Amino acid sequence: MSRARVDPTDPRSSAFGRLTGAVYWFLVIELCFLLAAAPGFVGLLLLERDASNIPLFALMLVPVAPAFSAAMHALARRTAESDLVVWPRFWHGWVLNVLDVLKLWVPALVLGAMLAINIVVGAAAGVGPALRAASGVLLALVAVWAVIAVVIATFFRFRTRDTARLALFYLAARPLTALAVASFLVIVVGLIAFTSDWVAALAGSLLAAFLLLVAKPVLDDCRARFVEAEEA
What we know:
By secondary structure, the protein is mainly alpha-helical. It has 11 helices and no strands.
């Protein structure tokens, strides 16, 4: 299907028009992202940075993944420079994906919180350094797996267990993509550690675009293996 012809006299077709259109998209998606994840962000702001609050931190992160998924959904559907219909696309993506994303995200948060507690307070509880180190490696793997699973759940309607298996498969089958996702997580953690939670939150739409870019090999392979193959 060919793209509709763009009127060359339309100011939106100029370089400046395309630039302002892109900025508009990112600003509206960022606003939607902040609104969708607001309950979690407000809770994170109020929580004291203490190891005893790790389960509460995990709870506050629950709404972040559906909001981030909706941001990726909206960004992926920007098909024309002059298209400024952003708000409904974000919320359509949120409604479409919220249950599928949470079915994967919540168990990952629970496991991640348990591992984080083991790492942070393990020494005081008598947990050996080897087990704490293993918990750290497992926590990193769970985080990368969870991000890949959320990306797959955003764009494909697989069963939850199939999405979980695919994310695990791509963790090993696409090591460069997994490394890129790990880099994405390092950037997020770095923003939080060296600036504040709100800097990372305000960069949500940009981070979503970056994750879309690094996860493209996984999405393309999923589409070729499990969507186009079934349609052929």
